[in-house]
Amino acid sequence: MESSAEPIKWVLENLNYWVVTLFMAIESSFIPFPSEVIVPPAAWKAITDESMNIFLVVVFATAGADVGALINYYLARWLGRPIIYKFANSRFGHMCLIDEAKVQHAEEYFRKHGAVSTFFGRLIPAVRQLISIPAGLAGMQLGPFLLYTTLGAGVWNSILAVIGYLIYRFTDIKTTNDVYVLATHYSHEIGYGIIIIAVLIVAFLIYKGTKRKK
Which of 39, 62, 117, 141 is most buried per CB count within 10 Å? Predict the structure, then answer.
């Protein structure tokens, strides 16, 4: 816990656009780092002083997420499935909180939902960081991949920024660390809510498709 607490503490004490971009790139790659540490506190800081702008926080966070997603995409595309799964089963993979089951889950999600999964996948806990891997393994075209990734990451970062704003608006919290703790709680709830909404949308589309065939 101490090893992860130090980087989190440093980020919370040194928030600026470049820190947001760098650590969102890390969060979006295979290195585990929670986006709740970055965007809600940065959005909260943007409201409390003039050193940052909340809209630019979302822009830089999304750019960072794109960079991290592209790292996963190209690694998967260049290395291929055997090496990716070997990495997932390695000690270093486990240190990055990746294992074979998680990669399989991301692949299954991608197979079920196709290219659009790179959009919805960015909104779903436990899939968000890994959805770029099956996209790379499947050889998904870069243009659509980057478009869906940017849209999905943009929506997620906007949600986190709104959480940061609401924490400023409706609480008396005075530190970025407290913002991070509270944002983590609410972002998990929102993530599960998004899963339910995504399932309902997919079910509706399947129902409409079946009805049309009849």
Answer: 39
Which residue pairs from 199-203 have beta carbons closer than 8 angstroms and sit at least 24 positions apart in sequence?
Answer: 202/113
DSSP codes, the chain: -HHHHHHHHHHHHS-SHHHHHHHHHHHHTTS---GGGTHHHHHHHHHHSSS--HHHHHHHHHHHHHHHHHHHHHHHHHH-HHHHHHHHTSHHHHHTT--HHHHHHHHHHHHHHGGGHHHHGGGSTTTTTTTHHHHHHTT--HHHHHHHHHHHHHHHHHHHHHHHHHHHHH----SHHHHHHHHHHHHHHHHHHHHHHHHHHHHHHHHHHHHHH-
Spatial separation of the C-alpha atoms in residues 1 and 78, rounded to whole Å: 33
Reported confidence tier of residue 154, pLDDT bands at 50, 70, 90: very high
% the chain with pLDDT above 70: 81
